[in-house]
Automatic annotation (TrEMBL), chains A, B:
This is coproporphyrinogen oxidase. The keyword Oxidoreductase applies. It is an enzyme of class 1 (oxidoreductase). The lineage of its organism: Eukaryota, Viridiplantae, Streptophyta, Embryophyta, Tracheophyta. It catalyses: coproporphyrinogen III + O2 + 2 H(+) = protoporphyrinogen IX + 2 CO2 + 2 H2O. Its EC number is 1.3.3.3.
């Protein structure tokens, strides 16, 4: 199922890009499992687009468990046997008016820590999709949100620790979420990919890419989990843009289009 | 003393840059203390150069304590009262043949955690200086290392948890280290700042800048400590370059100058 999701997302992206093709790498994880990374780099529409799937298992250190599990009340002390399968993707378009998209859907299982045998086995689904624009087009955000259940930041649907229905039902929910990504995102890209832009708008996109890198490397639980369980670094960091910029204490002029984006990030809105 | 160190480093950098001037911001930390950030951006020689000093105190969460302290055998459970003073700097030159320099020297004090009163108060010095070139010039690395005591990676002197001499003596050791930065680095910059370079050499520097961002945001204990104690984000992230690049699975051709740098990063050498 995650293979099919990867295939259909990549096919849709290649079609909209028109020039770039995905390059594929299969990899195995020394501790158990492996994955397939597909990356389209420097295409006509996308600066960088990565779609990873992985099925990994083994034993994870306590720090990785903290990154994997949303609920903090459940601190396992020792190394934790685990199984995880998922799809994750970040799409960075070239045009500053076309938003970056991230999505990730995953299934987790953990056993009792090695030093407390007999504790119950746990499983849960988690995931989300979110939109990271450099400029706000209210109509795009509304279109995107008409596919959502709950929201976080400027856009998306996020859930975690989901295990209070039967597994089959939750699997179809996660599958449906993954299948909604293409119809939610591609129309926005089609609309914005050829919008004319100037150098200073491109520079603003680069600054927002810098902020994306910061969030991704410092706070993203998927990235942290991957790095702490010895995942393949090149696959984990496919999420980073092709290029980014950091200017000290950059502040857009109040009331400008750049300022409106920042304002929307700081003061979340109900879009629909 | 840290004010003087900041002043003398910035003066030496402005002199070698010739065009760029440091911009200064003073800030206070809501939880206690504050600092002064000085940043030179888009100069003639430096793409971005930041020199921060700070004196902060208050109470830090356990994660911040783990970031602050090198020795892992000393896990404090609750919030820890602390005092920290230090200087830290990252200098990114424009020319791809001129190396990036990082240095940081700091003094720490912690009290017993709030829930175990009576436990002893601790203090220690830590710090280091290291060179991050995009190309290896053996003579530059040798020159730089002639100022060192111990080494890590391609270059530098690092120490931590230093508290087994009297405080005054350790303070003069740390001061001497900080004062060695300028004579160790400026001659390398003078030699390399006008070396001709082509586009592909600049692109390699951008890729290495990307790797720098990765190490800095994921692993750097100073960055982690700053972010987890609610430090001023713009000051903490002054260490990031003006721009950076990530290409998927980039591998330099074996035997090339780019490959030699990677090889030296992977297989540490005794340079002198």
């Amino acid at each position: 199922m995650i293979l099919e999701a990867q295939e259909s997302v990549c096919a849709a992206l290649e079609a909209v890009d028109g020039a770039g093709k995905f390059k594929e790498d299969a990899w195995t994880r020394p501790g158990g499992g492996g994955g397939i990374s597909r990356v389209l780099q420097d295409g006509a529409v996308f600066e960088k687009a990565g779609v990873n799937i992985s099925v990994v298992y083994g034993v994870m250190p306590p720090e990785a468990y903290r990154a994997a599990k949303a609920a903090a009340d459940d601190q396992k002390p020792g190394p934790v046997p685990f199984f995880a399968a998922g799809i994750s993707s970040v799409l960075h378009p070239k045009n500053p008016f076309a938003p970056t998209l991230h999505f990730n859907y995953r299934y987790f299982e953990t056993d009792a820590p090695k030093d407390t045998p007999g504790a119950p086995r746990q499983w849960w689904f988690g995931g989300g999709t979110d939109l990271t624009p450099a400029y706000v087009f209210e109509e795009d955000v509304k279109h995107f949100h008409s596919h959502r259940g709950e929201r976080r930041g400027l856009g998306g649907i996020f859930f975690d620790d989901l295990n209070d229905y039967d597994q089959e039902m939750l699997l179809s929910f996660a599958t449906e979420c993954a299948n909604s990504v293409v119809p939610a995102y591609i129309p926005i890209i089609e609309k914005r990919k050829d919008t004319p832009f100037n150098e200073s708008q491109k520079a603003w996109q680069q600054l927002r890419r810098g902020r994306y890198v910061e969030f991704n490397l410092v706070y993203d639980r998927g990235t942290t989990f991957g790095l702490k369980t010895g995942g393949r670094i090149e696959s984990i960091l496919v999420s980073l843009p092709l290029s980014a910029r950091w200017e000290y204490d950059h502040k857009p002029e109040e009331g400008s289009e750049e300022w409106k984006l920042l304002d929307a990030c700081i003061n979340p809105k109900e879009w629909i």
